[in-house]
TrEMBL record:
PANTHER family: GLUCOSAMINE-6-PHOSPHATE ISOMERASE (PTHR11280). Its EC number is 3.5.99.6. It is an enzyme of class 3 (hydrolase). HAMAP family: GlcN6P_deamin (MF_01241). The lineage of its organism: Bacteria, Bacillati, Bacillota, Bacilli, Lactobacillales. This is Glucosamine-6-phosphate deaminase. Pathway: Amino-sugar metabolism; N-acetylneuraminate degradation; D-fructose 6-phosphate from N-acetylneuraminate: step 5/5. The keyword Translocase does not apply. The gene is nagB. The keyword Hydrolase applies. Keywords: Carbohydrate metabolism, Hydrolase. The active site is at 62 (proton acceptor), 128 (for ring-opening step), 130 (proton acceptor), 135 (for ring-opening step). It comes from Lactococcus taiwanensis.
């Protein structure tokens, strides 16, 4: 696991962009994408670049259950706003949060991932150590699944909604086993509130209690963290 400590999110976004550009130059065709506040500056760098994605495919990590792409809190809306409207791809895939049959949608998304192996995956990390919406206790061998969101995740995401009561209680998430199949993984973490999770991910034991710790078990993982998020690391 390579750790890059940066001063702020702007610097982190620029480094993430450089890593993406290098991956594309080396043949990456399918990108695994994330949402939330963490990758916003990274997407700004991408949008303001001359990179062309019209031959590329994206596969997103997750989507809230119950929200469709017209809802401004859905992850499809987020991706359209921050990336896809400015940088069109050949294909974009996100779970369908409005699917009538969630079990069928989970199986369908596993098929999409199998047909489009991810070359370069971007991740954030939750305060409880989740990646995607794989909450503490998620088994390492799980693929796409419906998640009951933890109270801490609901509270952390409430800032994006009018009230905490409006935050969906479930999401469809790419599983840990699916994430771990990605050829290259770049995880970004910013802010003091992520420091405990970052320390556990890098220096703690590998445990289902902190899902991101599974990243210790594989190669080709780069962590970009600002000084606050990296403040508890011993080295």
């Amino acid at each position: 696991m390579k750790v890059i400590v940066v001063k702020n999110q702007l610097e982190g976004g620029k480094i993430g962009f450089d890593l993406l550009k290098e991956a594309i130059e080396n043949g990456a065709k399918t990108l695994g994408l994330a949402t939330g506040s963490t990758p916003v500056e990274f997407y700004n760098q991408v949008v303001n670049s001359d990179l062309d994605f019209t031959d590329m495919t994206s596969v997103n990590l997750d989507e809230y259950v119950g929200l469709d792409g017209s809802n401004d809190q859905s992850y499809r809306y987020f991706m359209n706003k921050h990336l896809f409207e400015e940088k069109p791809f050949k294909e974009n895939f996100l779970p369908n949060g409005k699917a009538a049959d969630l079990d069928a949608e989970v199986k369908h998304y596993d098929e999409i991932i199998a047909e489009h192996p991810i070359d370069w995956q971007i991740l954030g990390i939750g305060q409880n150590g989740h990646i995607g919406f794989n909450e503490p206790g998620t088994p390492a061998d799980i693929t796409t699944h419906v998640v009951d969101l933890e109270e801490s995740t609901i509270k952390a995401n409430a800032r994006f909604f009018e009230s905490e009561a409006d935050v969906p209680r479930q999401a469809i998430s790419m599983g840990l086993a699916s994430i771990m199949k990605s050829k290259n993984i770049v995880l970004m973490a910013y802010g003091k509130e992520k420091a405990e999770a970052v320390k556990g991910m890098i220096e703690g034991e590998v445990t289902v209690d902190l899902p991101a710790s599974i990243l210790q078990t594989r190669d080709n993982v780069t962590v970009i963290a600002d000084e606050a998020a990296a403040s508890l690391l011993s080295k």
